[in-house]
Structure formats: C-alpha cells, structure tokens
Give the backbone structure.
Amino acid sequence: MTPEWLEAWTPEVGTARVATLFAARFDQDPDGTWSAPGRVNLIGEHTDYNGGLCLPIALPHRTYAALRRRDDDAVRLVSAQEPDGMRTIALADVAPGAVDGWAGYVVGVAWALRQAGYAVGGFDVAIDSCVPYGAGLSSSAALEASVAVALDAVFALGLAGSDEGRATLAALCVRAENEIAGAPTGGMDQAAALRAQQGHALLLDCLDGSVRHVPFDLAAHDLALLVVDTRAEHALVDGQYAARRASCEAAAARLGVGTLREISDDPRGLEWALDKLDDEVQVRRVRHVVNEIDRVTWFVALLDAGEVGLVGTLMNQSHASLRDDYEVSCRELDLVVDTARVAGAVGARMTGGGFGGSAIALVSADEVDRVAQAVADAFADAGLRAPAFLVATAAAAAG
Ligand code: GLA
C-alpha cells in the first residue's frame, strides 16, 4: 500500500482557485481573498473547556474565502466542495438551529459579530479548502476564521490587526460554532487559526485567554511531525464530546471549583480531588484533565530548554491517558500510535477531539516515509480504510 500524502496548496494556488470560483459563480470580482489554517494540537487535549492549557500549531493547510460586501443583508454562499449548490440566507433569519451544514459556520460568524454589536451586513462568499474535512484538523475553525478576517476587512472592523482583536474574533467564532453550528467545542481551534505564529507553537491559557508563542522548529533538530488522518468516523456534534464536557463540569461543581484548572493550581493536589469524588467515571476524567495540563507545562519547558527529542514520553503518556482515562481514542488511532512507535517514532498520540480523526507522531526527519509506510501497511493488514498522511510545520494564522 503506497501512502497517500495530502499536500498543502501554496497561497498563490489557493487564492487563485477561490478568486476564480467567485468570479465564475457571482459574475464579478471579490473585494479580496482571505485564508485561515487548520491545526494540530501538540499536547493539552480536552483541557480547553476546563480552563486549562493547550499547545496547538497552525497547519500549512488552509481554507480560502473570496468575499464581496453587499448593500443588503443577504448572504450568498458557494463552495468548491459543493459544485452545484448556491445557498442564499438572510442574516435576519440566522438563529440557533436555523441553518444546517457548513453554511452555519459562515453565517454564524456574521451573526456572532452582529450580536456583539459590530456593523456587519450581507456578502457573497466563495470557499475552497485543502484542510482535510472530518480529519480532526479543525476544518470548521479554519472556515470560521477565514470568514472572520474577511468580514473584519470588508466591514472595516479593525479587529484582525492586533492579537487582542483576534482574541475577540476567536471568541465570536466559538460562539458561532457553539450556538449556530451546535458543536459545544472549547476554543483551542479558533485560537490556533487566528492567533498562532509561523515557526511557533501557541501556548494558550484557556483560563484568561492569554498566549505565549513558543519557538517550534523541528527541522533544526532533524525531527518531523507526521500527521495521520485515520479516516475513521469523527463527529463532534454527536453526544460523546458533550458528554465528556458535562462530566468535567459536574466534577468541578462537586469539588466546588469554577473549572478543573483550579485543581491543577491547588496545593492540596490531585489526590485530594480524586478522594472527594465518588463517581468512578468522574475520577478518571478529572485525572486525565489535571495530568494533561501538567504535561503541557512540561512539554513547553522541554521546548524552551531545546530538548525537543525528550517530549516523546509526554506524548505517549497523553495518548494512554486519553485512551484509558478519558476514553476518546479508537481502534484506528491506537493502531497509528502503536505502529508508529514500533517503527521508531520518538512519541505518538491522538490529536484533537478523538473518536476518529488524526494522530501525530514525532519522528526523525529521515524516517518520515518509513513510519508512514509502516502505518499504511498496518491499516491494510487490519482490513481498514487507507489512512492519509501529511507533514506538519508551524504555519501562520488567518490573514
Ligand atoms: C476539539 C474541540 C476543541 C478541543 C479538542 C480536544 O478539537 O474543537 O475545542 O476541546 O477537541 O482537545
């Protein structure tokens, strides 16, 4: 089985594709084109909605939006991924539960901006993307963020020019996703898409929204980050993600804290918290979250010390914790992780929400092909659908 590689478009290609699509479908030129990246999270999984720490990088794979402002409040949408359809939605009709499918992420951003008092009207928009869809690489946040920076520009909102403004845009994209698209996600993905920096991982503190840009240059250490899209079923809108979140919130309430982050920062420590919980499932969920927040701190300390080769143990621990305590892994993700490690990866773990989606493996730069081949072979031997591969470097945020 030859591994299939998912290449990122160059910005020139992505821009030309989406501008051509816009002109062909709307018979005029767009006001401009914008784009935003997908992400992989290095470590800190299911911590964002617990006020914790996470450490994503933006991918070179981006979603492109060509957009033109209108004088009324209509939104017309086309997508290269849906060649036949054009949808028209009046902004006044956008409300929770009113818009289904990918269009909800687009008009949801305009809706959230308007809810927050920003003067945003109608627009025509064309979308094209090389962020693999449904791969757990945040194609939805890339879509929201590309539209957010486009609306910021054409309606002169002045938010995308500063990190503070981008934090506002990210928060509004989360609102769009939570309330219009109906996925109760935590905010890491939108922060990565809007606030990451090229060559850096984004240390995001979800308690106060503050960020630190941590230099992340694997090539300088002869390492590479292999991303494997398992192509296993993955849907955050199904009840599993919401159930994990609810379990954490119930545990926090039982412990009398606002978020589980407070347990990490509490001198009495994890043991005290676990002793106080009588629900065995909550014990495991809390243990994952608190330990995972600690692993982010250790991971960043190793990066700061130039010891990138040592983060593998933390990645392996993170995967075991997500598999056993948080129970969000699956057969395909475990197979990637186990196979990559046997094939010589420094460390490997699932990334993103889980239940399918993607895994990451940190490998020597000259072993990327060999590890990918081993994973492709293992999937073929197991009779599973062929996975897809990409190599992640820390790319730039939306612009
Ligand atoms: C999904 C969500 C994020 C985050 C991760 C798990 O990607 O969109 O907000 O909760 O799962 O870390």
